[in-house]
């Protein structure tokens, strides 16, 4: 079977018929996996961000915004799943196509920008803990977050004002894709690569290289703590490159060389595989920035205890009055034990973990 055909509607209008089998084989697996794993993980991440905000930590602002961006994309996955299962035939109106397309593409860049905010915030916390303290406030984090959302919203209005519906030679309504790419997409793709990927990865690498240099020179930090920080930094950079690197490279390749349906057909599978990798960022973000912190374990233990207390209260309402004092005793003893543990940890906290806490909080 041929991979493509061409139909010319005018001298400058070419529509390609390309084998989209990768969408039916690979993308449903990705979408279902990201939805099933990413939704609960990001809900927990949102809770962790809330806990950080509750203690006036500006990191929580960035984490909550990052999580909201991931969740918005996750909510669009059922629409994309239906689209690919129907052999790339969009059955909703064009407005819904634009909304889902914006959530798909803008989630990439909103996520990248908040990942940069987190890395710069950690850089200022570790390398310049007192010099730029005004940039590490709740107010500054809110202003920066609002600026990011506003910028991306205006960018989407500017870049996605074109019609997003096209029909392939099989009369399928294709959403948010053009083969070969249109002339107006070239500028957008170059902007995505340089401003949306190259500059952020430079900031990310700069921030974490400085952090690693400070950690390496710190004689008071335990070797285990140094290793944990190094692993987290290295994992962040690797996941950033794996999730976003291949897609942005291929975006530039398409802009430079995609002139005919023949080239579009050759690069179609690898390009869309790279696009699917960006979806895994919705799972990587909670894993790296929430569950990697040692303090998070304690926070989620508290969440578990709250859930257990709630379940106990619900169970007690249906039991005899003779059993109603038991949960109170359990809660009191649990609270006392937790208080004693906190006091013990506070007095036994060694000076060697100060740098470690500056990185995570």
UniProtKB/TrEMBL annotation:
One Pfam family per UniProt: 7tm_1
Family assignment from sequence similarity: Belongs to the G-protein coupled receptor 1 family.
Biological process terms in GO annotation: cellular response to pH
Organism in which the protein naturally occurs: Microcaecilia unicolor
Molecular functions (GO terms): G protein-coupled receptor activity
Transmembrane segments: 29-50, 62-81, 101-120, 140-160, 190-211, 232-257
Keywords: Cell membrane, Disulfide bond, G-protein coupled receptor, Glycoprotein, Membrane, Receptor, Transducer, Transmembrane, Transmembrane helix
One GO location term (cellular component): plasma membrane
PROSITE patterns for the chain: G_PROTEIN_RECEP_F1_1, G_PROTEIN_RECEP_F1_2
The name this protein goes by in its record: Ovarian cancer G-protein coupled receptor 1
